[in-house]
Amino acid sequence: MTAIDYQGATAESIKHHYDVSNDFFALWLDTDLTYTCALWDEGDTLESAQKRKLDYLIDGARAAGARRVLDVGCGWGSLLERLVRAHGVQQAVGLTLSDSQAERLRELALERTEVRVENWLDHEPAERYDAIISIGAFEHFARTGLSRAERVAAYREFFERCRAWLPKGGRIALQTNIKGNNVQMDKQTVRDLLFIVDIIFPESEIPALSEVLESSEKRFDVVHLRNDPDHYSRTCQEWFDRLRANRDQAVKVAGEENVANYERYLSSTVGHFRNRHLGLSRIVLEAV
After folding, report:
1. How many CB atoms neighbour CB 187 within 10 A?
2. How far apart are CA 161 and CA 172, in angstroms?
3. Cα–Cα distance between 96 and 80 in angstroms, integer?
4. Which site from 8, 10, 104, 161 is most exposed, i.e. has the minimal number of CB atoms within 10 Å?
5. How many CA atoms lie within 13 A of 210 on its CB side?
6. Which residues neighbour 136 within 8 Å (Cβ) at sequence distance 6 or greater?
7. How many CB atoms lie under 10 A from the CB of residue 89?
8. How far from chain centre, in Å, is Cα 192?
9. Which domains does the chain have, with CATH numbers?
10. What CA–CA distance (Å, rounded) separates 84 from 133?
């Protein structure tokens, strides 16, 4: 394994977050356990806004009706299910580093779906994919403390592999948190951001948008790009409200400390996006 293999968050750090308990996350996420920013429109519920997000990225990647689609960071499988059951994909492959997520997906027994507990660095597909979608995983591809050049190198490795897995004209639909442009923070905001890095998402680093674009150059053209921090602020508020409404059961499932940590994480993140300390990019890229 090369030095680049160690630039992202380790499997242990991913498990630290996502393996808290499937039952815990089910108390405050939507019914499909979609743990990423929704795409809101007037009159939406969390469930309908999450499906709109999935459909937006599927359409952007031109994945509907495709023969083979890769989901990098598949979570609990809401995108995989949407691909095969609503968009006619013949085979959907999902990668996760969470045993709990993989266990739930195997229990669902989705047709035409393969789930692997595997880092994208170790992924060696037998044949190419028609499209790739990655939602909320990019933030784990570079570890806290790296220089900008090291982060860009780690991200470039991802894009180079994706380019090898796609034909010319094949697309990636990518959704990721990005650093915001408002760097004026009070002390509490700084403390809350450090808390999230140390306690909630250890070893992970949110990229700058410029780092994402730079690392994809010479391999992909940008087709669409939008920044939706307000959508994530609203999503986190909905998650926080649901967690508070189910707090007693959450404590029984995950313990008081975990629940208190997630309350602080979700409530502070509402403000981080609203105040533009963080952004949320949805990017569609096409292989050149």
Report:
1. 7
2. 12
3. 12
4. 10
5. 4
6. 35, 36, 37, 73, 75, 175, 176, 177
7. 23
8. 21
9. 11-287 (3.40.50.150)
10. 14
C-beta separation of 270 from 237 below 8 A = yes
Task: Give per-residue burial for 124-162: e unless 16+ CB within 10 Å, then b.
Answer: eeeeebbbbbbbbbbbbbbbeeeeeebbbbbbbbbbebb
| Rounded distance between C-alpha atoms, residue 189 and residue 269, angstroms | 9
Token reading at 198: 């140390």
Tens-digit pLDDT string for the chain (288 aa): 344 444 655 555 444 445 578 899 999 999 999 999 999 999 999 999 999 999 999 999 999 999 999 999 999 999 999 999 999 999 999 999 988 899 999 998 899 999 999 999 999 999 999 999 999 999 999 988 899 999 999 999 999 999 999 999 999 999 999 999 999 999 999 999 999 988 888 778 899 999 999 999 999 999 999 999 999 999 999 999 999 999 999 999 999 999 999 999 999 999 999 999 999 999 999 999
Q: How far is CA 126 from CA 111, 123, 134, in A?
A: 19, 10, 20
pTM: 0.93
Of 198, 201, 177, nearest to 14 by C-alpha is: 201
The two tokens of residue 229 are: 């921090």
